[in-house]
């Protein structure tokens, strides 16, 4: 199964490679530049300005250990939801959880299962 976005196919091989080199990982808090997902994915459409909410440490964004008002980038959890949707996964595949880290790890697990489906025995992953 190959799914296209912006002309670039998302294949199981691409996803396996991105999992192997940690482009896809189970972190629901990180904010990266779109280039952080290259060369596997063009996620420039997911870039946004994300604002800190200084009411708690969990809702405050830090850059180099210092709190900042806002940062422009791609929220990794948004990327994971986008990728899961692009390959046809839904909450039926990865569940519904409250914590961002738990959500991210669950989605990555479902993405990994999808990428490994229908692989011949003995294939080097």
What separation lies between the terminal Cα atoms?
Answer: 18 Å
Q: What's the helix-strand series?
A: EEHEEEEEHHH
How much helix, percentage-wise, in residues? 25-40%
Number of domains: 1
Lateral arrangement of strands in the main beta sheet: 3-7-4
Structure description:
By secondary structure, the protein is of the alpha+beta class. It has one domain (3-116). It has four helices and seven strands, in the order ββαβββββααα. Strands 3-7-4 form a three-stranded antiparallel sheet. The protein has a two-stranded antiparallel ribbon with strand order 1-2. A two-stranded antiparallel sheet has the order 5-6. Helix 1 (12-20) crosses helix 4 (100-116) and helix 2 packs parallel to helix 4.
Name the descriptors.
disordered C terminus, 7 strands, 4 helices, alpha+beta
Topology at a glance:
Blueprint: E1 3-5, E2 8-10, H1 12-20, E3 31-32, E4 48-51, E5 61-63, E6 66-68, E7 70-75, H2 76-86, H3 91-94, H4 100-116
Antiparallel strand pairs: 1-2, 3-7, 4-7, 5-6
Helix pairs in contact: 1-4, 2-4
Give a short overview:
This protein has 125 residues and is α+β, with helices and mostly antiparallel strands.
